[in-house]
């Protein structure tokens, strides 16, 4: 049965990392094997900055950023292939030329379209290099263009998958079973063949789409952490690994902002009962975390998710009438139109409070539109603390010395919004 592997940016960030991916893949002989790869390191951020430079910045800034991308990718190619680098360098150069040409062609088009035509190159570059490297070390690979596999609508930057068309194309691809199929995460294409993207960090979702369409046996996501923890181990000094998690619990963690898995990933897998394993690419012996159907393992271990750079909007009617369902519907409708997600929604008789990711391009027009019809109070640079399975004592301990500006609680999740300045640095979960 088919296995799907996904390698994120950190696992392919430079020549040493790509070599390690090659060594890792050499240990897995089972076929069919589909390998989904993200852009190298922070390339997607660099492409976003390139786009901003192209649209709003100086031409010199754009050229410098393009040159940096070129240099970084070519350095990796040279480090991998040495004096045999010529053909791969040529392919990388030609992708960068195509990127540059697209910029010029699309500079006056609306931003989301331009974004997708630009940012898709991160994954095209990484998979070109990695596929060539695997061939170089004697592994038979087939490079697949995800824009021909994952069929989407034209909702740029957050494209929706056409499942039926995608399944047909993906099944046709997988008929060649001996080779490792290497494809890009995060990107897709419309039926007309225009590039689209699935949303930031969307490569996990790409792996799930392919696994769903192929009725895969398992999806493995290779990370710089051994698995899923009850908090980001970079922020919480006593985070513990959760080795078995149900889909439902994992969806809750991802939905509340645990950065380890893209929230859309679990649905397509849960529908087909395909387990998802998160493993360390640095330590193959480390016990992984597995997400599956079985809820027996869901402990009541509290999990912490910190969501930073939040903006709180407190919205009231101007005439002191109720914040009734019709008004909530109006406000949330505007939120959907702006493409923003509220990490916390809390309604009172006269007020609706929303905690939103501080995404200036989307937030500012939303705030301007709300201010036309409502009284809006705003507070920036906040941190939203989400705690799963918290008891009162834990919540009180986590809140000590912090001013809660908004809160919400249901049976299994408590949320509190604090000033960001009170939340920086390392956290500790009191026992
Ligand atoms: P990728 O290389 O796949 O893009 P990411 O950097 O997006 O990987 O995700 C891995 C990082 O996620 C880890 O380095 C870790 O700091 C962070 N992280 C956040 N929350 C968690 C969590 N609950 N469990 C494990 N890692 C987490
Ligand atoms: N490269 C894309 C990003 O950084 C997709 C991904 O890595 O999942 O958002
Ligand atoms: Mg990532």
From TrEMBL:
Pathway(s) served: Amino-acid biosynthesis; L-threonine biosynthesis; L-threonine from L-aspartate: step 1/5; Amino-acid biosynthesis; L-lysine biosynthesis via DAP pathway; (S)-tetrahydrodipicolinate from L-aspartate: step 1/4; Amino-acid biosynthesis; L-methionine biosynthesis via de novo pathway; L-homoserine from L-aspartate: step 1/3
Reactions catalysed: L-aspartate + ATP = 4-phospho-L-aspartate + ADP
Domain Aspartate/glutamate/uridylate kinase: 1-279
Coiled coil regions in record: none
EC category name: transferase
EC number, as in UniProt: 2.7.2.4
Xref: InterPro entries: AceGlu_kinase-like_sf, Asp/Glu/Uridylate_kinase, Asp_kinase, AsparK_Bifunc_asparK/hSer_DH
GO BP term, pick one: lysine biosynthetic process via diaminopimelate
GO molecular function (one): ATP binding
GO CC annotations on file: cytosol
Keywords: Amino-acid biosynthesis, ATP-binding, Kinase, Nucleotide-binding, Transferase
Family stated for the protein in its record: Belongs to the aspartokinase family.
Protein name per Swiss-Prot or TrEMBL: Aspartokinase
Organism listed in the record: Halomonas fontilapidosi
């Amino acid at each position: 049965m088919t296995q799907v592997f996904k390698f994120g940016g950190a696992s392919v960030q430079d020549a040493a990392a790509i070599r390690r991916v090659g060594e890792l893949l050499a240990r897995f002989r089972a076929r069919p094997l589909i390998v989904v790869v993200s852009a190298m390191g922070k390339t997607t951020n660099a492409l976003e900055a390139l786009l901003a430079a192209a649209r709003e910045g100086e031409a010199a800034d754009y050229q410098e950023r393009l040159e940096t991308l070129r240099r970084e990718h070519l350095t990796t190619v040279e480090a991998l292939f040495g004096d045999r680098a010529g053909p791969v360098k040529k392919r990388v150069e030609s992708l960068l030329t195509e990127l540059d040409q697209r910029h010029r062609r699309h500079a006056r088009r609306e931003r989301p379209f331009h974004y997708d035509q630009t940012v898709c190159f991160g994954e095209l570059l990484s998979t070109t290099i990695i596929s060539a490297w695997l061939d170089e070390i004697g592994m038979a690979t087939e490079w697949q263009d995800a824009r021909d596999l994952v069929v989407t609508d034209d909702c740029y930057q957050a494209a929706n998958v056409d499942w039926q068309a995608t399944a047909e194309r993906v099944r046709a691809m997988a008929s060649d079973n001996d080779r490792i199929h290497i494809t890009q995460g995060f990107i897709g294409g419309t039926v007309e063949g225009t590039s689209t993207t699935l949303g930031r960090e969307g490569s996990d979702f790409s792996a799930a789409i392919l696994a769903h369409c192929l009725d895969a046996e398992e999806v493995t996501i290779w990370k710089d952490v051994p698995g899923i923890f009850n908090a980001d181990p970079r922020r919480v000094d006593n985070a513990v690994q959760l080795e078995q998690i149900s889909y439902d619990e994992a969806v809750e963690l991802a939905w509340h902002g645990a950065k380890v898995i893209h929230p859309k990933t679990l649905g397509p897998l849960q529908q087909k009962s395909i387990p998802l394993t998160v493993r360390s690419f640095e330590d193959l012996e480390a016990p992984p975390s597995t997400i599956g159907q079985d809820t027996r393992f869901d402990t009541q271990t509290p999990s912490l998710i910190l969501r930073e750079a939040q903006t709180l909007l407190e919205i009231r009617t101007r005439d002191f009438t109720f914040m009734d369902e019709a008004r909530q519907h109006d406000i949330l409708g505007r939120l959907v139109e702006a493409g923003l997600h509220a990490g916390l929604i809390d309604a009172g008789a006269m007020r609706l409070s929303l905690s939103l990711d501080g995404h200036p391009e989307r937030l500012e027009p939303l705030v301007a539109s709300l201010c036309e019809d409502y009284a809006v109070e705003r507070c920036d640079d906040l941190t939203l603390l989400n705690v799963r399975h918290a008891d009162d004592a834990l919540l009180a301990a986590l809140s000590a010395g912090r001013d809660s500006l908004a809160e919400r609680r249901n049976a299994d999740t408590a949320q509190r919004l604090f000033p960001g300045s009170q939340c920086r640095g390392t956290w500790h979960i009191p026992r």
